[in-house]
Design goal:
140 residues, mainly beta, Deoxyuridine 5'-Triphosphate Nucleotidohydrolase, Chain A, four-stranded antiparallel β-sheet, three-stranded antiparallel β-sheet, 1 helix
Length: 140
């Protein structure tokens, strides 16, 4: 699959797949962004993408950033029709201020095929062994 990438910023970096077989490719910051503890923000990538029809781009955490620094990505769905800049929503759940430096990896992007379901309203749904059991229904 070929994804067309447009640089919107001269220092933008094309997404990189670090290792053969990796599910995601790295996205990089085009400017320094400082996040205090508990603060949300956006990190610009300086890129726009042409994601093919019937595919979606999903922005996910970099595991090192999330496990070591408490950095969590927020709401990362990029629809195939979107042509604006890819901005990475971030929250600092760590215990210290975190600074994304220009050129630093900020998140990873996964490209996945999607299904477009139809929805049918019904009066009842079939029974299952789980039923209406929600959060904590199988223990912690």
């Amino acid at each position: 699959m070929n994804i067309k990438v447009k640089k919107l910023h001269p220092d933008a970096q094309i997404p990189v797949i670090a290792h053969l077989g990796d599910a995601g490719c790295d996205l990089f910051a085009t400017e320094d962004v400082v996040l205090d503890v508990g603060q949300r923000g956006q990190v610009p990538t300086g890129l726009a993408l042409e994601i093919p029809d019937r595919y979606v781009g999903l922005i996910w955490d970099k595991s090192g950033l999330s496990h070591k620094a408490g950095i969590k990505t927020l709401g990362g769905v990029i629809d195939s029709g979107y042509r604006g800049e890819i901005m990475v929503g971030i929250i600092n759940l760590g215990t210290e201020t975190y600074t994304f430096k220009k050129g630093e990896k900020v998140a990873q992007l996964l490209i996945q095929k999607i299904q477009s379901p139809t929805f049918e309203e019904v009066i009842e749904l079939p029974e299952t062994s789980r039923g209406e059991g929600g959060f904590g229904s199988t223990g912690l």
